[in-house]
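So, can you check these tokens?
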Amino acid sequence: MRKGAILSDHRCRVIIASFYRLSVKLQSRRKTST
């Protein structure tokens, strides 16, 4: 595998993780607001 491919895969994982955290935060806020 090329280093570039590994870096891109790592970036994708980081982006997915960040989006997952944001969605969890939004869900928690909705639960507390209701």
Notes: Residues 12 and 18 are 10 Å apart (CA to CA). The mean pLDDT is 87.
